[in-house]
Design goal:
The complex is a heterodimer. Chain A is α+β, with helices and mostly antiparallel strands. Helices cover 47% and strands 17% of the residues of chain A. Chain A has two domains: 215 residues, no CATH class; 98 residues, Immunoglobulin-like. Chain A contains seven helices and nine strands; from the N terminus they run αβββββββββαααααα. A five-stranded mixed sheet of chain A has the order 2-9-8-4-5, with no helix packed on it. In chain A, strands 1-3-7-6 form a four-stranded antiparallel sheet, with no helix packed on it. The longest helix of chain A has 38 residues. Chain A is elongated, with a radius of gyration of 28 Å. By secondary structure, chain B is an all-alpha fold. Chain B has one domain. In chain B, helix 3 runs antiparallel to helix 7 and helix 6 packs parallel to helix 8. Classes of the chains: A alpha+beta, B mainly alpha.
């Protein structure tokens, strides 16, 4: 391991992976979706002209294949006429039949859009059909036409309601957490190694990896707070109620206490010995906290207590193609940071030895 | 080993009895904390009642356990180092601190429920949680006191080292003690108790393994 510290290949790999994840994470567009429509309701027997606002859509470019439906359960009401004024704006004229059966009146309909460029996308529960004119004529369900493709024809990240563009944060926030856990585990392993061999280099490695672990914990905390502020609302409503966030906070506090302890001990050998023992305690309690307590308390955080995680957001695994490289890249960057600290420490020692 | 343990434990108990003023000071501290809490809250619901009791116990136990390695001079520690195994020393301290914590918890609960009421529905469960909590304090803080005693300004260091380590345990303790306050499924209670017990076993195990490294100087 110590020899690897002076090698260059894994640092280059880490830098490239992080660069790739930042570029791809910021440049890849979010998939097509509807952001708004007006009006939001109509009565049966009426004719209504709905203005749709798309996001990252190609209404104009794929105007010939653009089709729009209102859906409730098994009923698909096609638009009588569709017009696209630009790529992000479309107009759809619907005749809401007066003879709609009772079960389909006073209901909230989904709006579904399909075109050849963007595939199918949906704005759920967006349009209300109210009871207006009633006709006793028998209602015939319109035929559902087949469409050419259901998936967008361009590379994208999933478009998710509530998250929207902030879904990219997954590629920055989650790798911080992974890197932190890895670095703290390294620190733990080297604390054990120190107690077995009393080699001061191992203690320097344990301290440096814990230091980088704190850095990544803070970064994860900040990126998570930004995300939560956007998706869950004001910080003070959820900040310390979430076990994952609390886990990150405790990880940071534990290892800050570790550095306070190191500062309080002046003798080198004694400092290494006692702080290694504390490091082992800290890691065990940290692992207990992040694995055990999320099962005991309620949380909003994805991936706990029945909340959907990553896999449910990423049906076409486009996110994964950036996420895994990002995780490995940030881990390597963290190790690089700590290796620099270790090397600085070793050089200082060497110089001290030469001077004396 | 067992004989060493018994001798060391007896030594600690005798020492405490001869220096009764330290113990009295500790008990006074607990009572003062309860009075302070009463004056600032007057009436509390059962969730707050539970949380405040654990906080009182937390602060008094840090004070109580912190002095377990400071009371004796380093020369005397050197002497123990030669005549006893380190495992026996740490185990005797843990057991001694467990007695101390049980005493403190009992007195704190008594005074506390006298002034702020006793909203416990299932006393047996609550006492079991209190026992596990007291042993948790004893196991976790004994080792930290040993570490802190090796540094200067150890009283402040003791608090800094123990608070973050204690938070995970506090979360489990609050859940476990809730079993005494509200109706809860038997299997859930058993699971939580078992979890806390296992955690304490792990802490004692690590303490036994690592104490020799702290002790030798």
């Amino acid at each position: 391991m110590i020899k690897q510290m002076y090698k260059r290949w894994w640092k280059v790999l880490g830098a490239l992976l992080v660069l790739y994840s930042i570029l791809a994470g910021l440049a890849v567009p979010v998939g097509p979706g509807l952001s708004d429509l007006s009006p939001k309701e109509a009565k049966t027997g009426e004719e209504v002209l709905i203005q749709l606002r798309g996001y990252n859509t190609h209404f104009k470019a794929a105007a010939s294949s653009l089709r729009i439906w209102l859906r409730h359960k098994d009923l698909y009401l096609p638009a009588a006429q569709v017009h696209s004024s630009s790529d992000w704006h479309a107009l759809a004229r619907f005749h809401i039949p007066a003879n709609l059966p009772g079960a389909y009146r006073n209901q909230v309909y989904d709006v579904i859009v399909n075109d050849d460029e963007d595939g199918t996308f949906i704005l759920p529960r967006a349009f209300s059909v109210l009871s207006g004119r009633v006709s006793e004529e028998e209602f015939r369900f319109p035929q559902v036409e087949s469409v050419k493709n259901n998936d967008p024809q361009w590379f994208n990240f999933p478009h998710r309601i509530v998250l929207y563009e902030s879904i990219r944060n997954l590629l920055f926030h989650v790798p911080m957490w992974f890197a932190m856990t890895l670095l703290l585990t390294f620190s733990f392993a080297y604390a054990i190694a120190y107690l077995r061999t009393f080699n001061p280099v191992y203690d320097a490695i344990a301290a440096a990896t814990a230091n980088a672990g704190i850095l990544f914990g803070l970064l994860g905390f900040v990126t998570g707070a930004l995300w939560g502020n956007y998706a869950w609302g004001a910080l003070n409503k959820w900040l310390l109620q979430d076990t994952k966030i609390l886990g990150a906070l405790i990880g940071i506090l534990l290892y800050m206490a570790y550095f306070v302890l190191r500062g309080a001990l002046s003798d080198d050998e004694k400092r290494a010995r006692i702080s290694s023992v504390y490091n082992i305690f800290a890691w065990v309690m940290f692992i207990v906290f992040i694995y055990v307590t999320p099962r005991m308390t309620q949380t909003l955080h994805p991936g706990n207590g029945g909340n959907p995680a990553f896999s449910s957001y990423d049906l076409d695994s486009h996110l994964r193609m950036v996420f895994y490289p990002a995780v490995i890249g940030w881990m390597l960057i963290g190790l690089w940071i700590s290796s620099l600290q270790v090397r600085y420490h070793l050089l200082k020692e060497k110089r001290y030895d030469q001077e004396n | 080993m067992l004989k060493e343990l018994k001798t060391l434990l007896w030594k600690d108990l005798k020492l405490e009895w001869r220096k009764r003023h330290a113990l009295n000071g500790l008990l006074l501290y607990v009572v003062l904390m309860v009075v302070l809490v009463y004056l600032s809250f007057e009436k509390v619901d059962f969730v707050t009642w539970n949380a405040l009791l654990w906080l009182i116990l937390l602060f008094s136990s840090i004070n109580a356990v912190a002095k377990s390695f400071l009371g004796e001079s380093s020369a005397r520690h050197l002497y123990y180092y030669h005549v006893a195994r380190p495992q026996a020393v740490i185990l005797s301290k843990i057991i001694y601190n467990l007695f101390l914590m049980l005493l403190i918890a009992g007195i704190a609960l008594g005074v506390y429920s006298l002034v702020l009421g006793f909203p416990v529905l299932y006393p047996l469960r609550y006492f079991a949680a209190l026992f596990l909590g007291a042993s948790g304090f004893a196991t976790l803080f004994t080792m930290l006191a040993a570490m802190a005693s090796r540094a200067e300004n150890s009283a402040a260091l003791m608090a800094i080292l123990s608070f973050p380590l204690f938070i995970p345990m506090l979360v489990i303790l609050l859940t476990v003690s809730r079993a005494g306050l509200v109706p809860m499924e038997g299997s859930v209670i058993l699971q939580n108790f078992a979890l806390l017990f296992l955690l304490e076993l792990v802490i004692v195990g690590i303490s036994l393994l690592l104490f020799p490294y702290i002790w030798r100087d």
